[in-house]
Design goal:
about 150 residues; elongated; about 0% strand; mainly alpha
Length: about 150
């Protein structure tokens, strides 16, 4: 009787803990993804600030464009979004469920973003808005389709 009761409570405990563990995994995935996107957005924003003359770190452009190209690598961004966290966890996110229901479109934008970032990185310290315009366009395309306002 004791072993049956223990097994029943152990089973109940696992049934209760499984969604909690799944939520924790989703929360960790969301936090990781947000940090990756902070690197992407921070790099692009820093480059824009230098190009607008709002920051005098012209000498940093080569490093910033390299950071942008590295952080937009689909191996990084794709992995950050691979786990479907739609309606999971408690961590706030602006990622739409459309990412996972239209993965091919999302992945295509990620590739185009990285291709554009590589062009900017090739320009290095001589990068201009002409090289950054496609980067910003792909950021906007992704935000328009896959990010909640």
């Amino acid at each position: 009787m004791k072993s049956t009761t223990f097994a029943m409570f152990a089973g109940l405990g696992l049934a209760i803990l499984a969604p909690v563990a799944q939520a924790a995994d989703a929360d960790n995935a969301i936090k990781y993804r947000k940090n990756i996107m902070k690197i992407v957005g921070g790099s692009a924003s820093a480059i824009a600030a230098v190009l607008k003359g709002e920051a005098g770190q012209q000498a940093d452009l080569a490093a910033l464009t390299q950071m942008l190209a590295a952080s937009t690598d689909p191996a990084i961004t794709g992995a950050a979004f691979k786990q479907n966290t739609d309606d999971q966890g408690v961590e706030k996110t602006t990622a739409k469920g459309d990412i996972w229901s239209d993965w091919d479109k999302f992945a295509g934008i990620a590739v185009k973003l990285n291709d554009a970032a590589k062009v900017a990185a090739a320009a290095g310290e001589n990068v201009s808005f002409a090289e950054m315009k496609p980067v910003f366009a792909e950021c906007k395309a992704c935000h328009d389709d896959f990010r909640q306002k």
